[in-house]
Design goal:
By secondary structure, the protein is mostly beta strands. It has two domains: about 5-95, Copper binding periplasmic protein CusF (OB fold (Dihydrolipoamide Acetyltransferase, E2P)); about 165-525, YVTN repeat-like/Quinoprotein amine dehydrogenase (Methylamine Dehydrogenase, Chain H). About 5% of the residues lie in helices and about 40% in strands. It has a seven-stranded mixed β-sheet, with no helix packed on it. Strands 8-39-38-37 form a four-stranded antiparallel β-sheet, with no helix packed on it. β31 and β32 (about 445-450) form a beta hairpin. The longest helix has 12 residues, at about 5-15. The radius of gyration is 23 Å and the shape is globular. About 50% of the residues are buried.
Length: about 525
């Protein structure tokens, strides 16, 4: 039982009340085989080798699909689901993931073998849709297909690891220095690195880790005591790839051959700067636009034509904040689509159509390094930073063609330095400095804290969190808002001497870990 719950119980006892905290006796995760809405039953195939189980669903059970309340009959076969039961083995909650709300296959008919569909997100929840044209399990950009830290559908990863960790699939070397993570699309893995004084983009065959091509960005070599080389994760859009060098060189390449389509330096063109630790932003592709944040005078954020690099608009933000070390996301609130990014001074929102400044929040910004991308759910934006600062939740509300940001709360329990955060079913997971923490997004209440994974970066896939400690160890944790449940941990071999700052990536049932010169691939499938 958490300290918070004990404290609540003591307070209520002092007030003359008896409080029995609601505690789930078990959480069973698996795949829906069938649903019988009229009989109020659901059949689940649990993860691993366990036999299928049939559950009776009482009236009033809390049922959600991708975080939204639904009825039992709206669930469908093939979706991933977690079943929460009480000490009396009664189902108290169902959380399903992975698709539109459609009637499930009736329990009286055979369940067809289907591949789970890619999660279709509501435009008001996570509009960063995968435009790569790749497979549902691909990860074509920074932080996954929807740029929210969620892996794509169809990964079907295991919910536990042996003591030795998941099965190694392949590894490759020669990728140069840098903290770039990887993107995965159409059978290729893409990343960046610095070989000597040559900043490059690398393409690797996803199946076996063999090199496909490498191309210079044409930019200078960024070198710094904390680590040399680029920090950007390339973005794949159809047959093109976009990568941003640590000194501002933005290139558009043919994803298959590496042939250069266009190139420009956004710092030179828009009067920006690379900050103290180099540009860390990964380009956002939205429709025909490439969105980057040079932080120049009158050009805090700019939109370029993705086909030729020509400027479409530049956004003037009050006080002309310089760039932070975060990447932009696209959100839509009340019909107003906007781009949100964490600058050197605070979080900003600008209108997608024309770059018009909409709103700004500075309460969770620090004066040293604002690194983690904001996360968005149900018209709420959360952002946070380290150096003792913490996080802030904002509620966005649109009226006409403008949007207003209202601060809901400020918390000191999410001092997220640079490892990012994810929202699952309305709960926020991320590292509060060196402590993995779960918050209720709407209230900011702390649900649990755990030191075991340590300070690191986070990715969500198939009901599980994968946390990569900046010293190297990787931990598998249930995305369980009620308690910390660790399901495996292993030490990455062949560690470099640098911090393991590249985010872990889950794509097509595999875990990919970039560590300077080396890229490792593990099989996570059941």
């Amino acid at each position: 039982m958490s300290i918070r719950r004990i404290a609540v119980g003591l307070v209520c006892l002092l007030c003359g009340l008896i409080v029995v905290p609601a505690v789930w006796a078990a959480v069973i995760s698996g795949t829906i085989e069938s649903v019988s809405a009229d009989r109020k039953k659901i059949t689940i195939k649990p993860s691993g080798d366990k036999p299928k189980q049939v559950y009776s669903i009482p009236d009033g059970t809390n049922i959600t699909l991708d975080g939204k309340p639904v009825k039992l009959g709206e669930l469908q076969a093939g979706q991933q689901v977690s079943v929460f039961t009480s000490s009396g083995e009664s189902v108290t909650r169902l959380t399903a993931r992975g698709g539109e709300s459609k009637p499930a296959t009736p329990a009286t008919t055979p369940t067809p073998k289907t591949t789970p569909k890619s999660k279709k997100t509501d435009s008001a929840d996570s509009p960063n849709d995968d435009a790569s044209g790749g497979k549902p399990g691909d990860s074509p950009q920074f932080r996954g297909p929807r740029r929210d830290g969620h892996a794509g559908s169809g990964n079907n990863i295991t919910n536990s690891w042996p003591r030795s960790g998941p099965k190694p699939e392949w590894s490759t070397n020669g990728l140069g220095e840098g903290f770039s993570a990887v993107s995965v699309a159409n059978g290729r893995v893409y990343t960046m690195g610095l070989n000597g004084n040559d900043e490059k983009v690398f393409a690797i065959n996803e199946r076996d880790g063999r090199p496909a091509w490498s191309v210079s960005t044409g930019g200078g070599a960024y070198k710094d005591g904390t680590g040399d080389g680029p920090r950007c994760t390339p973005t794949v859009d159809g047959d093109r790839l976009y990568a941003l060098g640590a000194l501002g060189d933005l290139v558009c390449l043919d994803a298959k051959s590496g042939q250069r389509r266009w190139h420009k330096n956004i710092l030179k063109e828009f009067g920006g700067n690379a900050g103290h630790w180099g540009i860390c932003e990964s380009p956002l592709i939205d429709g025909e636009k490439v969105i980057v944040t040079p932080g120049g005078r009158g050009a805090t954020m700019v939109a370029l034509n993705k086909n030729n690099g020509n400027m479409l608009w530049k956004s003037r933000v009050p006080s002309d904040p310089g760039p932070g070390y975060a990447s932009a996301i696209a959100v839509e609130v009340g019909g107003v689509r906007q781009y949100v990014n964490f600058t050197a001074r605070g979080l900003i929102g600008v209108r997608a159509d024309d770059g018009e400044f909409l709103w700004q929040s500075n309460s969770a910004a620090n004066g040293t390094a604002n690194c983690s991308a904001a996360v968005f759910h149900d018209n709420h934006v959360f952002y946070g930073s380290g150096y003792g600062t913490g996080g802030t939740c904002l509620r966005l509300e649109s009226n006409g063609n403008t949007t207003r940001a209202e601060e809901v709360y400020k918390t000191n329990n999410m001092k997220n330095h640079h490892g990012g955060m994810v929202i699952v079913d309305g709960f926020l997971y991320g590292c509060d400095e060196s402590i993995l923490t779960c918050l209720d997004l709407r209230s900011g209440n702390v649900l649990w804290k755990e030191r075991s994974p340590g300070k690191g970066s986070i990715t969500f896939a198939d009901g599980m969190l994968i946390v990569r400690n900046e010293q190297g160890p990787v931990t598998l944790v249930e995305a369980n808002s009620q308690r910390y449940v660790e399901k495996g941990q292993f030490d990455q071999p062949n560690r470099s001497r640098r911090q393991a700052w590249a985010y872990p990536v889950v794509a097509n049932g595999h875990l990919l870990l970039r560590d300077q010169e080396t890229l490792l691939c593990y099989d996570l499938r059941r």
